[in-house]
Every structure is written in C-alpha cells, then in structure tokens.
Write a structure and sequence with these properties.
five-stranded mixed beta sheet, globular, Maltoporin, Chain A, disordered N terminus, single chain
Length: 735
C-alpha cells in the first residue's frame, strides 16, 4: 500500500507539471510568488483582523538559539508557554504546555497537515530532531483559535510552514557543541531556481547528547528533502522528511530525597542482586523509533480572487521501547506485574522471572486536505476539508527471560490493532464593513471513528468502537479605531475525542469547551502590544491527574466542570535602532469546580481545586541589543509560578516557582571572500545556575495491604530536574 501511495503521488506530480506547462500562458499571474507559498497555511493561520490571540515567529528569530535543542525549547519565551525536558537539557523528549494545557491539547500542523499522533494526540518532537532548521515560519494561536486540521485545539494551535523556495543556490554547513557532550551537525543546500521553475533543496542532521540526567543519552538523525516547481500561478512541492531517534529512557524522574542529594539519578534499567544491592544498569533501556513523512502540495491561483491548495500526506512510524525488568525491584520498589508469568503470557502463570521486553508501535497515517481562499471586495472566504486514515499495531515481544522455559522466539504477550478515520470540513467568513469593522464566522464539522481490539499488557483486553460527530462554531468581531488601536471579541466552541490511554483507563467522555476572548492591539512606531483576556469554560475536561503510566505517558480523567480565566500581555518596544525589549506575562486562575476524590476508601468532596500543571503566573522577557550589522546580543528571562501536579491541592504535589536567565550572542558577517556568510552563535542557558524543576508527577492511592482491614491514603511524587548552567556554541558557513 505504501508503494502504491508513493506512486500515486509521483504520477499526480508529474501530471500536474505537464498540465501547468500547457496552460501557463493563459493563467493570470497577479499575485506575488510569496502568496502562493502562503496558500498552504493561509486557511488555518490567523491575521490581525481576526479576533484571537496569536504569536508569529520567523526562522530569523529562531536562528540565534537554534543550536540543536527541540522545538518546544525554542518556543519557551512565547506568552503563556511552559516547556520541559526529560533529559534536562532540551534534547531528547521535550514537552510544551500553553495556558496550562498539555501537548495533547496543542493542535500541531506542518504545512497544514496534522502532526499530533492520531491515537495518543501527543506530539513527539524527538522524532523530528533539528526540524527548526527546515522551518520558515511558525504561528502559535492561544485558546481555540481558528479551525485547523486534526484534533481540536483545547489550549493552543501551533502551525509550522517549512522552507520556502530559495531563488539563489547555496550550501550551508553548521556545527555546534556544548555541555553534556552535545554535538549537532547539519548540512543544508539548495539548487536555487533552475530555469526559473525548479528548485531542489534539503537538509541532513545528526545530534548526539549525553543529557543532564544520568544515561539520558540521545542519538538523533533527521533529513528534509524538497522538490519544487513554479510556473506562473502554479506552485507544486514534493517533500520527504523524517527522523530516527534512539534515546535512553529518562521518564522515571527522581523522588524528593534524590532531588536534594542526587539530582541526576536515573533508575531506568537498574539491576539488583537478591539482597537489593545495585549491580549495574541495562545498556539497551532505550526508546528506538523511526518516522518518515511524505507530502505533496499543489498551490494554484485560478483568478485574481481565488487560490486553492491540495495536499497529500503519508506518514510511517515504527519502533519500540526496550526495557529490562528486575525481579527484586518489582517485588520491593515498584510492585508492578511486569515480571509475572501471567503478565508475559507464560505458563504456569504463578511464577516470576526477570526479563527484557520490547513494546512495539507500527503505524501509518494517510491524509488528504483541500483548502481555498476567495477574496473580492469586502468579502474574504476560506474553506477546507480533510480526509484521514490511521492504522496501527501495538504489540509486545519477550526478548529474554531467565526463569522461563519453552518460550518461542519473539514470543508475543499482547497485540491490538487500531484504525482511526476522520472527515472534516470548515469554512471561514471574513467580512469588512465600512473599512473599520471586521466580522468573523468560522464553522467546523468533524466526523470520526476509532476502533481498536485485542490484548494489552497486563494481561487484559481492549475493545473500543466509537464514533463521534462534532460541530465547532466560532464567531467574533474586530473594530479598528485607527491605525494604532484595534479591539476584538470572540466566542468559540470546541469538542474533541478521548485518546487511547483514556480508554485504557476507563470509559471516557468527549471534552467540550466554550472559549471567550477579548483583546486590544496597539501598534505605533515604537510599540507593538496585545492585551488579551479569556475565559475557557470546560465540560468533562480530561484533566491530567498528575500520574503517568509505565512508559511516561500522562494519565487523564474526566472532571465535570472546570475553567481557565486569565489575561495575557505581550509587547515589543524599540528604544532606538539598536535596543529593543520583548516581554509578556500571563496571569490566570485555573480551577476544577465541585471536585471529588477517593481518599482512604471514601469519596471526599474537595470543592474548587487547582487544575494540575497550571501555574497562575508565567512571564518572559528578552532584551535585544544590535551592536552593529554583525553583533547581536539577547538576554532572555523566564518566570514560571508555583503549580500543583495534581487536582487535590496536596502540598506534596506543589512545584516551586522558578526564574531562569539565558544569554545569546551571535556574530554574522558577509565580509569574507571565501564564503557568502559566516556565523558564530553562543547560548548560555540558566546562566545563574538555578536548581529548578519544570515538570513532575503526582499519584495517590488507598493502601489496603499494609494493615489488614484498613485503608491508608498514600501520596507520592516524582520530579524532572533541569540542568544548571550549560552552554551551546555553534558555527555556520554558507557558500
């Protein structure tokens, strides 16, 4: 099927090249070329005339800090954003939260194609290492935002547009190195426009790091290849990109005592003797995964008023977690079932054995999208739709067991098959009334089905056959008082389906959200600012409980009523041609309403409690100094207020606030005769060496075994400490 799909892409591409050559003379070329580039994402990106809050970032703004760290870390200083890194230094597994909403609620698209995993709804940037080096621009919309492709946004939408066509040929070699034995090498190239029509470009990258946390190593490779054709009002792009990652597991975190005395401790792969003495660590306690993406985009201007964009996508992902399970550890520390014969599907089921498991994922994702923009007079109409099909296999294999007999090679102890289909349509109506009023209406319809059957590790069974239909309307208005001031208001509804982990942990309900936004934009010669207030009213929100499963995935549960109320201020002020300030602050109140929890065998009413992982203050500031045309300095600061890791307001679950500062220095020159451009970058992270924790987990349960006949309420925590002062330095040559 994969080969058939790729052949279809090639056939469509070549056929369109021929058709475009035949019709070039008759197509009116009234839009600039950049407009055709933007058609791919125009339908899902917001503009200043639309009633929502957003931030846009260009590749030039990312460049000084783009030295190998993952995408979430590069976006750390945007409003209401909190980021974290399992390995502690921004390479490997990283995460992003916006307005307290985790990655499963941040809708991510790449060139308008959904990137969130269709089943888990998460985004795993470790599968696309160094992807920022192939990104032209990024827009982060907070709240529900505009209609997009993929799962509905419950905290934010993040859409990325990859590299635009380069009119000039170039080759660029970049290398960086830093603390924790970190290295990044990449090679970029472009042929420039050949015969004014064709361009071929690409990137190859390799990143290695030992990580701040013990053994939290990363070995990451990625590629990006693009072929483009433009002729008059036609632009066609074929892209292939992807990555390979092999990371040592570091999702276990550390307990409170280790956080004080041994912050870099990593218990993954620990091996003990019969008396509980540590004897070493399993070398291959790794996450090993490949992910490849193939995209075909056809952007067409049919008339001065109408543009369309057709896109096809195929994504293939496959890989595994390999884990050693120690008998003493499971009997005395974790109390899990991973060493039981019954868990492993072995007979007799009363025995236990140390073992090595591989838990596999093998999935394919097919997507077709169509979007268009019609603009004439005061009317601007966007429309689009999506068809997608996701199939996947989850299965576990036993590689080794020291106390098992008569085990077949590659013994499988669970397997389930998955299929998820979606069809979606949206239309957006923008109308300009008397030049200063802009009315906005956005209607989205999603219809999807999710089926999975088989067994899961445990042993257990999973049997889900659900169908959902969601109608998500949005409406708002913008009033332009004068060129310096505009005001907007909007209301938006969003609904979304549960993910696989939710089904594995119960019978979840879909989530519902009403998002109210009110804002004021200011633009003068020196000041650009946006003040935005919001109220996000949730029903059956799937909130993070604070707990994680055995592969580090967050566990969620429905709560009845909850809300997020806040105000965001984002401003840039230019003091003179050399000095500027960029700052933002987000103040919020995030609450469960009428919350109940089971504690000590009883259902306890806790009233209004804090939503997990939702700090009430998040702020950032960047002081930018451009010494001359070659030297650039940035002092970047980030403050994140205290936050609860659970929903029961336990003091034990409270993460302390933290305040960090980074320094970025960049030197760029075109004065050398032997290359077009030479660049040197230095990034010092956490330059005041703050000991801080950006993420963790919290769990509680009723212990009914320690004291016969009694139920004892028990709480526990884990923490992901982040690195102290560390640096990255890089050089780049462009020829």
């Amino acid at each position: 099927m994969k080969k058939i799909f790729q052949l279809a892409l090639m056939t469509l591409w070549l056929g369109q090249l021929h058709a475009a050559q035949q019709t070039t003379a008759t197509v009116q070329d009234s839009l600039p070329k950049i407009s055709l580039e933007e058609v791919t994402v125009a339908g899902i990106r917001a503009t200043s005339k639309q009633p929502m809050s957003f931030s846009s970032v260009t590749k030039e703004e990312l460049a000084p800090r783009n030295l190998g760290q993952d995408m979430p870390i590069l976006l750390n200083f945007l409003p209401a954003v909190v980021t974290t890194s399992d390995a502690g230094a921004g390479i490997g597994y990283t995460g992003i939260r916006v307005r307290g909403s985790d990655a499963t609620r941040v809708n991510v698209t790449i060139n308008g194609i959904p990137y969130n995993d269709a089943e888990s709804q998460g985004t795993f940037w470790v599968n696309l290492p160094d992807f920022a080096s192939s990104v032209e621009s990024i827009q982060l919309q907070r709240g529900v935002g505009t209609s997009s492709n993929g799962p509905g946004a419950f905290g934010a939408s993040l859409n990325l547009k990859t590299d635009a066509l380069s009119p000039e040929a170039f080759a660029q070699w970049s290398s960086s190195m830093g603390t924790f034995n970190t290295f990044r090498h990449n090679l970029k190239f472009s042929t420039g426009l050949l015969n004014d029509h064709f361009e071929f470009s690409g990137r190859l990258s390799h990143i290695r790091s030992d990580g701040y946390v013990d053994r939290a190593s990363s070995n990451l490779k990625s590629y990006f290849l693009q072929g483009a054709y433009q002729e008059g009002s036609t632009l066609i792009k074929a892209l292939a990109f992807g990555g390979y990652e092999r990371t040592y597991q570091s999702w276990y975190g550390v307990d409170a005592a280790s956080l004080e005395n041994n912050r870099t401790l990593n218990v993954a792969g620990a091996q003990y003797d019969a008396n509980g003495n540590l004897t070493g660590y399993y070398d291959d306690q790794v996450d090993n995964y490949n992910q490849d993406h193939y995209q075909l985009h056809w952007n067409q201007q049919w008339s001065p008023y109408l543009n369309t964009a057709l896109a096809l996508n195929y994504t293939y992902g496959r890989g595994y977690y390999e884990e050693f399970f120690d008998l003493w550890a499971t009997q005395n520390i974790t109390f899990e079932d991973d060493t039981n014969f019954s868990y492993l599907g072995l007979n007799p089921d009363t025995n236990q054995t140390e073992n090595v498991q591989r838990k596999w994922l093998d999935n394919q994702f097919y997507v077709a999208t169509l979007s268009g923009q019609y603009q004439k007079g005061s009317l601007n109409l966007d429309f689009g739709g999506l068809l997608s099909n996701y199939t996947g296999d989850h299965f576990g294999r036993l590689l080794w067991a020291n106390a098992a007999v008569a085990v077949n090679p590659k013994h499988e102890f669970y397997r389930s098959d998955v299929q998820k289909r979606e069809a979606a349509l949206y239309t957006k109506w923008n109308y300009n009334y008397k030049s200063d009023w802009f009315f906005y209406l956005d209607l989205q319809l999603r219809n999807l089905s999710y089926q999975t059957q088989g067994t899961v590790a445990g042993p257990g069974t999973i049997d889900v056959d659900e169908n959902y239909a969601f109608f998500n309307p949005k409406a708002g208005v913008t009033y332009v008082l004068n060129p310096q001031h505009s005001f907007y208001a909007s209301v938006a509804k969003a609904q979304r389906e549960p993910n696989r982990t939710d089904f594995e942990n119960g019978s979840p309900k879909p989530e519902k959200l009403l998002d109210y936004e009110l804002g004021w934009r200011i633009k003068t010669d020196r000041l650009q600012a946006q003040i935005n207030g919001y109220y996000m009213d949730y029903t059956d929100q799937l909130v993070l409980t604070g707990a994680i499963d055995n592969v580090g995935a967050p566990i969620r549960t429905n709560v009845g009523e909850s809300y997020r109320l806040g105000i965001e201020l984002d401003a840039t002020y230019r003091w003179d041609r050399r000095l500027s300030s960029q700052g933002n602050i987000a103040l919020s109140k995030n609450r469960n309403q009428n919350f109940y929890a089971r504690q000590a065998g009883e259902r306890v009413y806790l009233g209004d409690t804090h939503l997990a992982f939702s700090p009430e203050v998040v702020a950032a500031h960047a002081l930018n100094f451009q010494l001359d045309n070659e030297w650039q300095f940035q002092w970047l600061s980030k403050y994140v207020g205290e936050q609860y890791m659970g929903n029961v307001d336990s003091d034990l679950s409270l993460l302390d606030a933290y305040f960090t500062n980074d320094l970025s220095i960049r030197y760029s020159t075109q004065s050398f005769s032997w290359c077009k451009r030479f660049e040197f970058s230095l990034l010092m992270n956490n330059m005041f060496d703050v000991d801080y924790v950006s993420n963790g987990y919290f769990y509680y349960y009723d212990d009914t075994f320690s004291v016969p006949g009694e139920s004892i309420y028990v709480e526990g925590t884990g923490y992901y400490p982040q690195a102290g002062t560390n640096f990255l330095a890089g050089i780049s040559f462009t020829f």
